[in-house]
Amino acid sequence: MSEKPLAALKNQNVAEITFADHTRLALQVFSDTIIRVCPIDALANPSYAVVVKPQPTHFTVQVEAGVAAISTAALHVKVYPDHHMDVYDQNDRPLIMDYRGQRQPLNRDLAADETSLLEEEGHAGHEAVNAAAALTLIKQLDPDEVFYGLGDKTGFMNKRGYEYENWNTDDPAPQMENFTRLYKSIPVLYGLRQGRPYGLFFDNPYRSHVDLGKESPDYYAYSVVHGPLNYYIIGGHRLADVVANYAHLTGTVPLPQRWTLGYQHSRYGYQDAPEINQIADDFRQHDLPCDALYFDIDYMHGYRVFTWDPARYPDPEMLITQLHKKGFKAVTIIDPGVKREPGYPIYDDGKKHQVFVKTPAGKDYVNRVWPGHTVYPDFGSTKTRQWWGQCHTALTQIGVDGIWNDMNEPAAFDGPIPDDTVFSDNDKKSTHAKMHNLYGHNMSHATYAALKEQTGRRPFVITRAAYAGTQRYATVWTGDNHSLWAHLQMMIPQLCNLSMSGFSFAGTDLGGFGSDTTPELLTRWIEAGLFSPLFRNHSALGTRRQEPWLFGESTLAIYRKYLKLRYRFVPYLYDLFALAQSTGRPVMRPLVYDFDQDRQVYDIDDEYLIGDALLAAPVVTKGKTSRLVYLPAGQWIDFWTGAVIAGGQEIQTAAPLDTLPLYGQAGTMIPWGPAHDFITDEPDRAMSFKVFGDAASYDHYQDNGYDFAYQKGEFNQYHITFAQGKAAVMLTKAGYPAGLYSHITVTAGDQSFALQLENGKYQRIDKN
Ligand code: GLC
């Protein structure tokens, strides 16, 4: 080592490192398992993602032979005089090691003039993203290393071998694994190196890029166009712990309203109030459970936000009241773009309050979206968020139940918004380059706060664009997929990687948004998406309609079967959401989440877990009526037949068109709710629990399902056990007496046990 760090010293929760070139690096210890790395002068920068403060943590800082060593109980970091850094786990085994060799850019075998030739024929050129990068980290890649996370990027569960960009983008072309960017930027990456898990969270909203071993099998790299380099090293015993640590760092998903876990239906193109009412009636007439209908941009007057088309929706309040009576919630879309039109009250008021983003010359910046020329609210300003929130009273006062935020990358039909457009960053003047990836995040924040204040209920906000941490405000969907088998397949990696990236509440457009669906594809999609946390069918204007009764009796019957089944699982999903909120453990999970030591699961793209009890292995290929299913170690119970199957092997299973292969893990239990056509504020009166295997115990959570009373202790908790042929239920918390089940049934195989509430205790009432 030629140079020595001038100093490495401990200053409260920070290891301060000063290099010979006088640059100063901070390693800020958040906990045993979380260490932030950034320049010392960036320590005080606010973050939109991180919600926790460093916890008092014991750590040591030493300098030996010119190398600084910073150690917590779980992580050992070495910083070298040449600025390199290596991270080891608690047993000193390598986790994240700097790459010291030369970078080997991909050889595309193209001269510059050939690139333009390709572009002339219409082939997209390969952007030299790395060239623009101001800052780069390059880490050694182990031959066995695999990657997860990064939100809902396209492609496969394991991201190794691909490159991705973080720059929120609305590109309506069919998204395949060659897409490097989509609507969201969630720069958290999980690695498993020799089975040892770690996380890296790059908390810098500027445009960034990751190459996960595409360029070279020797390294992976992160680069960002503007500093500071600001990232978190996340450790944990198992991958699940690393994921939970990240969730706590950026905030867990707040418990949603119970009805939001029901089936939801949407279409871009529903024309008017009679049509919406008809769709509602058709759902009931066809005996299809459904909880929500959506109002896409068609409801607005010329796509002006916070208006209703007076001819097609003369009395929206009456319409919403009618829908409520039929058991449907109403969710309206709100895009950020405000039509630039003097005389339109929202525009005039926004101008008066100076809430729109500006050109560097101080004029309102104008681009074009659905309504034509539009201006963009500046959501990084508190004043704008409050103003925007206020605009929602027009919707909440007439009974709108949820808000769908779209086009908030933000989309701009007349070409990209210039980088130097003036946006606010925590009320300070900033640029589009910095605030672009945060636009949807700050918009969701504004919407969440408004709904909370105006309705008192748990806000239901859906957003398309997001940044790390947006899960605190909104559920997300993956944007404009197409009715393609490849997109049904992509749903599983997208939703699993989203949930690992903090977003437990997520969904795709079931059936596919663009292009025409087919009866078989729609059927397999409703099966595969059965446990999708957000369970919404949505399709685009001009495509084949996707109401399930339009595909013939047999498709309708299967669709109905799965909608009805979904409602039986809602109490289980709700329990998982309560757990996700308190522990950061996701609802929907890739197999690697629970079985990170089993290399067989690293590349499984067509199976997923729901909590730790259920494994779904949908058919996602056209024409297939059987498939191979890998069952991890343990014993698994076929959900349909009750057959016990040994895990640790691949099995061939029949999967006729009406069957979703589904397995319960032996030793677990799930609640099995009563049948519902829709979910009301009324508590269920009785609950069943299904046991998989010979013995299990389970903690079940219950509250009123819609407001924040649970935060004051108004909830119930039940501890259910089944062992040695006996079932018992203990009420471990009774803070919501109005909801207490009068009857509970526990079933295990063909045994069934009935219990009844008597004097605050559940007593067996059958004498089996
Ligand atoms: C965007 C959305 C889509 C919506 C459409 C019209 O394409 O992603 O879901 O239906 O805009 O609002």
In which order are the strands of the major sheet placed?
Answer: 31-30-28-25-21-20-19-33-32
Number of strands: 49
Task: Give the CA-based shape.
Answer: globular
Q: List low-pLDDT spans.
A: none
* N-C termini distance: 77 Å
Number of helices: 14
Ions, cofactors and other ligands present here are: alpha-D-glucopyranose
Rg from alpha-carbon coordinates = 26 Å
Strand percentage: 25-35%
For the residues shown, what is the average pLDDT? 96
> Main β-sheet, in a few words?
9 strands, parallel
Helical content class: 10-25%
Instruction: Quickly give the structural class.
Output: alpha+beta
Helices and strands, with pairings:
Blueprint: E1 7-11, E2 14-18, E3 24-31, E4 34-39, E5 60-64, E6 67-71, E7 76-79, E8 85-88, E9 94-97, H1 112-120, H2 129-132, E10 135-140, E11 146-149, E12 163-166, E13 184-185, E14 188-193, E15 196-202, E16 208-211, E17 219-224, E18 231-234, H3 239-250, E19 263-265, H4 273-285, E20 292-295, H5 316-325, E21 329-334, E22 338-339, H6 345-352, E23 366-369, E24 372-375, H7 382-391, H8 393-396, E25 402-405, E26 422-425, E27 428-431, H9 432-435, H10 439-455, E28 461-463, E29 466-467, E30 475-477, H11 485-500, E31 506-507, E32 509-510, H12 519-528, E33 535-537, H13 553-583, E34 588-589, H14 591-594, E35 608-610, E36 614-616, E37 626-631, E38 635-638, E39 644-646, E40 649-654, E41 662-665, E42 668-672, E43 686-692, E44 696-702, E45 716-723, E46 726-734, E47 743-748, E48 751-758, E49 761-764
Parallel strand pairs: 13-29, 19-20, 19-33, 20-21, 21-25, 25-28, 28-30, 30-31, 32-33, 43-47
Antiparallel strand pairs: 1-2, 2-3, 3-4, 4-18, 5-6, 6-7, 7-8, 8-9, 10-17, 11-14, 12-16, 14-15, 15-18, 16-17, 22-24, 23-24, 26-27, 34-35, 35-36, 36-41, 37-40, 38-39, 38-41, 42-43, 44-45, 45-46, 47-48, 48-49
Helix pairs in contact: 7-10, 12-13
